[in-house]
Amino acid sequence: MLTRIDHIGIACFDLDRTVEFYRSTYGFEVFHSEVNEEQGVREAMLRINGTDDGGASYLQLLEPVREDSTVAKWLAKNGEGVHHIAFGTADVDADAAEIRGKGVRVLYDEPRKGSMGSRITFLHPKDCGGVLTELVTAATGAHAEHAEQTEH
Ligand code: CMX
Ligand code: CO
After folding, report:
1. pTM for the full predicted model
2. What's the 60 CA to ligand 2 centre distance in angstroms?
3. What are phi and psi of 20, to 5 degrees?
4. Looking at the keywords, is Lipid metabolism present (predicted)?
């Protein structure tokens, strides 16, 4: 099942300014950045612990790239802040199916593309006590190398 906090998603209006806040205040550097067109975001992943043993967690700083994106809608309503949490799992398909069986709405029929070649899905915040919850299976092996080459 779910084995760790993969990341915390933080919505912001200005990604560069927010990256600079996390760098100058805490010393966190950008580990990876990309635009996820499907999700409508430009994002920076800041690795905040772990080494190269697969145990790292991230802050995922998110800036909307479209006015009709979910993050733009959320920012307009709430202002900047914590947008979602994400649990890491070795098998997002199996965990999503199991959680769906418990009556929690899983937003996607099939996991979609997330940061760094990962596969992601979301649980509806109204079924999770007001917390938008993401499940993530990180890319491994050839997938991870592909993500390194194409998305940095
Ligand atoms: N956390 C907690 N509650 C949230 C929320 C969030 N991030 N987003 C929406 N809600 C709540 C709203 O406050 C609203 O509650 P009320 O009815 O009580 O006001 C309700 O959910 C419906 O919200 P909405 O503004 O009408 O938004 P939608 O229903 O259109 O969309 C959701 C909500 C969760 C389906 C949509 O945000 C979604 O599909 N999210 C998953 C994708 C995503 O967030 N992508 C960006 C991150 C990408 C990444 O992590 O890689
Ligand atoms: Co996320």
Report:
1. 0.93
2. 6
3. -65, -35
4. no
